[in-house]
Amino acid sequence: MRKLALITGATSGIGKATAQILASNGYNLIITGRREELLHELSENLINDTGAGVLSLCFDVRDLTQVEKAIDSLTGRWSDIDLLINNAGLAVGIEPVHEGVIDDWERMIDTNIKGLLYLSRIISPRMVARESGHIINVSSVAGHEIYPNGAAYCGTKHAVKAITKAMRMELVPFGVKVSSISPGMVDTEFSLVRFKGNQLRADNVYKGLTPLYAADIAEAILFMVTRPPHVNIEDLAIMSTDQGSTRDYRRR
Ligand code: NDP
Ligand code: 8X3
Predict the structure, then answer these.
(1) Domains of the chain: which residue ranges?
(2) From the DSSP assignment, how many helices (H) and strands (E) are in the chain?
(3) Which atom of ligand 1 lies nearest, measured to the CA of 15?
(4) Is 153 designated active site?
């Protein structure tokens, strides 16, 4: 029988690639994001290409009412989620704290931290009741390292690391796995969002090096979810060969 995964932020990048690989490897999916037309397009493609059952839910993870309404609407075969992937997230802005844009900070904190907590709060009780399930939080190298002009974003990903560890301790008694994955630079819409639509600045991030691609992270997530029941990957850190740290790159 196919397992059921819910992926936040499946309209693009890592979330979309993860949806594709999980649908091809025996999962039914609930895909979520704010861009409804992209969800529909992905849903149709996944159903046609893989035969997976796919349901799309359009909501903003920052809005608790929307999150509750969406998850409460799940019934029957869509209600018992085996795998929650808290992937929706963003960096926005690249200013030092003394020039920081408060709205940018609020977007990052509300999405990367509060959204992840909302989804986990609403979905984990059913996992606890069934004494099975797996939650994977998409963290970052920015949850392990810090860099100037990244105070708020690095802060959110350090928070994801702390939340993941605490959640793991809390859910161990119920046989629910909690993991995180911590990628370095991945070529997605991430930089376009960080630079507020400035394509040139976004392209420069990946110039002269080979970054990770979303499919690389999706493959790692597939590895994490296909470990035997007694194995839980605590955190999987993954960098491109051309990246040494958040500040060291090999560019040619
Ligand atoms: P993308 O910008 O390509 O994808 C981000 C996804 O998050 C989109 O599907 C977007 O969907 C969704 N999203 C953003 N805000 C919200 C919101 N408020 N409500 C619901 N969905 C939201 O970036 P990535 O794929 O790279 O990012 C995915 C995760 O990976 C993030 O948590 C990011 O921090 C992390 N990460 C990325 C790295 C990178 O270098 N790319 C490196 C390390 C970690 P929509 O716009 O439709 O709502
Ligand atoms: C994204 C990677 O180095 O831009 O999480 O913070 S980095």
Answers:
(1) 3-238
(2) 9, 11
(3) 25
(4) yes
Cβ contact 78:52 at 8 Å: no
Kindly indicate whether the domain formed by 3-238 is annotated with CATH number 3.40.50.720. Answer: yes
Would you state the pLDDT for residue 179? 98
State both tokens at 83: 């795998």
Work out the angle between the directed axes of helices 116-130 and 64-72 (0-180°, nearest 10): 30
The percentage of the chain sitting over the pLDDT mark of 90, rounded to a whole number, equals 100
**Cα(137) to centroid(ligand 1), Å:** 12
Q: Which residues line ligand 1 (CB under 6 A)?
A: 8-15, 33-35, 60-62, 87-90, 111, 138, 140, 183, 185-186, 188-190, 193
Which residues share a beta bridge with 29? 5, 54
Burial 183-209 (b: 16+ CB within 10 A, else e): bbbbbbebbbbbbeeeeeebeebbeeb
pTM across the whole model: 0.98
pLDDT in tens, 41-64: 999 999 999 999 999 999 999 999
| pLDDT tens digits, 182-191 | 999 999 999 9
